[in-house]
Design brief:
By secondary structure, the protein is of the alpha/beta class. It has helices at residues 29-42, 56-65, 86-100, 118-130, 144-151, 172-181, 200-209, 213-223, 235-242, 251-258, and strands at residues 8-10, 16-18, 22-23, 46-48, 74-79, 107-110, 136-140, 160-164, 184-188, 227-228.
């Protein structure tokens, strides 16, 4: 319905991916399925799940029942931390394929940079890609030191690096690194689970643009060329989060929002795994 409105990015292997998607962390059974169906009806064409979320069957079911052609929906899932290592990752991929039951996976990510497992896990993803069992491979939670380490053993470059990235956690070195290497940065928990919505500087911008806090933050991501996957099971919020393509932020206001950075995290710091 609204899919044409949203911007796509071309990944470094030539695959096109929507910049805006729906995250489905902490959603289960009927709630997860209903959220994906609503998102697809709204116009979302990127759905991000993970083995660790325990909802791959519901996500797959929603996609199959949506009536939208499979090739129009970009689906991401991830190998869970206990399943890392070469052989385990290969098995985990097969399990995700069966649970999703949607024909193929568009993007398979290393969920976290597990110490002692990073190289072998990445090698498994390379095998899956070389064997054309997955369309794209990438990483998640790889801050710059992990990306440098990855360069020492990777024969295939990741297409995406998904990290926690918000105005209050403006990880500029990762953004710059990924832009320089043509890796698409993607932000999870982009709207801080609402914890920063009362920031007076943000509220001022909401009044200026007549937009909600979530819409300003998501638009800021898009302006930076960052893919973003806000999570919501609320139908009204799913629609609200999609309504960010009818306005743009000025360069001055983008710079103001960049200045919100204070190292505020919702999730664990990946560097704890270094």
């Amino acid at each position: 319905m609204n899919a044409v409105q949203q911007p796509y990015t071309t990944l470094n292997n030539g695959t096109k991916m929507p910049l805006l998607g729906l995250g489905v962390y902490d959603m289960y059974e009927a709630e997860a399925k209903a959220a994906v169906i609503k998102a697809l009806e709204t116009g979302y064409r990127l759905i991000d799940t993970a083995a660790a979320y325990n909802n791959e069957p519901e996500i797959g079911s929603a996609i199959r029942e949506s009536g939208i052609a499979r090739h129009e929906v970009f689906v991401t899932t991830k190998v869970a931390n206990p399943d890392q290592g070469y052989d385990n990752t290969m098995r985990a991929f097969d399990t995700s394929m069966k649970k999703l039951n949607i024909g193929y996976i568009d993007l398979y990510l290393v969920h976290w940079p597990v110490k002692g497992k990073r190289k072998e896990t990445w090698k498994a993803l390379e095998t899956l890609y070389k064997e054309k069992r997955v369309k794209c491979i990438g990483v998640a939670n790889y801050l710059v030191p992990f990306l440098y380490e990855l360069e020492t053993y990777a024969n295939i470059q990741p297409v995406v690096n998904q990290i926690e990235f918000t105005p209050w956690l403006f990880v500029k070195d990762a953004l710059d690194f990924c832009k320089d290497k043509n890796i698409q940065l993607q932000s999870y928990s982009p709207i801080t689970r609402g914890k920063k919505f009362d920031d007076e500087r943000l509220q001022s911008l909401c009044k200026k643009y007549n937009k909600t806090p979530a819409q300003i933050i998501l638009r800021w991501n898009i302006e930076h060329g960052v893919s973003t996957i806000p999570k919501s099971a609320n139908p009204a919020r799913i629609q609200e989060n999609f309504n960010i393509f009818d306005f743009t932020l000025t360069k001055e206001d983008i710079a103001v929002i960049d200045g919100f950075n204070e190292g505020f995290r919702i999730c664990e710091n990946p560097m704890d795994m270094w």
